[in-house]
Amino acid sequence: MVTIGVAGELWFQSRASDKQVLIRSATHEIEGLLNKEAGDARKEAGKANERAANAEERAATLLAEIQPRSLSLSQQRDIANAMRAFSGWKVMVSSNRGDLEGYQLGKQILASLQSAHLDVDNNLNNAGGGGMYAGVLISHSRSNREAANALKKALGSILGNVLAFESHGTGGGNAVIGPVKGSYDPLEVPQFVVSVAAKPLPMLK
After folding, report:
1. Which of 8, 38, 147, 154 satisfies CB 3.0 to 4.6 Å to 82 for a cystine?
2. Are the C-beta atoms of 115 and 167 separated by less than 8 Å?
């Protein structure tokens, strides 16, 4: 009987030990599954955060592309300070008929130049809008190249898309501002012209 009792006790201990092994194995398996799921969840969360950041960046880019061009008061003061050395120089500020966005920007450029005491001719909302250009163009002669380039630098640092070019004109005139009264050399037209054209279209991506 003692032998049977000992054998029975050993059998029960063996069974209990087997169950403990199975429980430990199942526990390890569950822990592994939970850790894997947690890792997968962290990866998905990281990917979701990255997608959200990319979407926000793209939205900000699109918003900037559709915003009208403008100059803050501080930027207008910076332009005026850059042009103050050309006080009294003649300049025309022009924009295309019907282009409200260009007209508003033109008004701000005009105000900046008036603040610098240039002799400004207002031709806003009056140009024909011909040509296939966009941005801001500055047409100048040889005599006012320095002022035109100074304005190009000041505006370009804010807006970009600013082009300055020398317009030689013909017969004592300038292709942009028309005939000049008197006997001016076509290379010495006394007025440079700031033409505010349409806002450049964003690059297709």
Report:
1. 154
2. no
Indicate if the pLDDT at residue 193 is higher than 90.
Answer: yes
Q: Which two tokens stand for residue 171?
A: 């017969």
Query: What does the alpha-carbon distance between residue 163 and residue 134 come to, in Å, rounded to a whole number?
Result: 10
Q: How many domains does the chain have?
A: 2
135 and 179 inside one domain: yes
Which residue range(s) make up the domain with 102?
73-196
Q: Are residues 19 and 94 in the same domain?
A: no
DSSP string, 117-160: T-EEEEEEEEE---SS--SEEEEE-STTHHHHHHHHHHHHHHH-
Whether the per-residue pLDDT at 178 is higher than 50: the answer is no
Q: Where is the domain boundary, 17, 52, 67?
A: 67
Residues ≥6 apart with Cβ < 8 Å to 139 = 148, 164, 165, 166, 167, 174, 175, 176, 177, 192, 193, 195
Indicate whether 203 belongs to any domain.
Answer: no
CA angle 148, 159, 195 (to 5 degrees): 45
